[in-house]
Amino acid sequence: MSDRSAALARLDALGVAYELTEHPAVFTIEDMEQLGLTGSGTVCKNLFLRDAKGRRHFLVVIPGNCRADLKSIETQLGSTRLSFASAERLQRYLGLIGGEVTPLGIINDPDAAVEVVFDRSLEGNPRVGVHPNDNTATVWLAFDDLLRIVRDNGNTVHFITLETALT
Predict the structure, then answer these.
(1) Which of 20, 60, 150, 167 is spaced 20 to 30 A from 112 at the CA atom?
(2) pTM of the full predicted structure?
(3) Which tens digits make up the pLDDT trace of 69-81?
(4) Sign of CA dihedral 22, 110, 41, 28
(5) How many CA atoms within 13 Å lie on the side-chain side of 8?
């Protein structure tokens, strides 16, 4: 089963309503803007981070127009210095490669080792867009369903508040 198929199968198994939009491979929010995808809902920016000792790993999910202030994130999480995790760690913990980072990657984290961090501004959003473990498509679903998927997998969930002043 492909990564995309596994992600969609998990959504189906949990009875999550979603819409799938296929598109050329995208690697950035700017790529998604150029394809006109950001007008379809709130596209999420996803960061895979680690603490200074590499003991804690965080998948940070924020709106695409949000500034990813690592100092603010580490303070709100009570973490040591945060930095981007390596491609090897991304593969080991979420089974993903760069450009495919998504909260749906938690389906590849059976030990629920990755802590998932959501920006509070996403709460209650009826339509957020994330990759289905493949950057050639976007899954549109309600934030509450996305949160349920992560919690169903057993991952620790945190909420933070970041500045959404990117324009």
Answers:
(1) 20
(2) 0.93
(3) 999 999 999 999 9
(4) negative
(5) 14
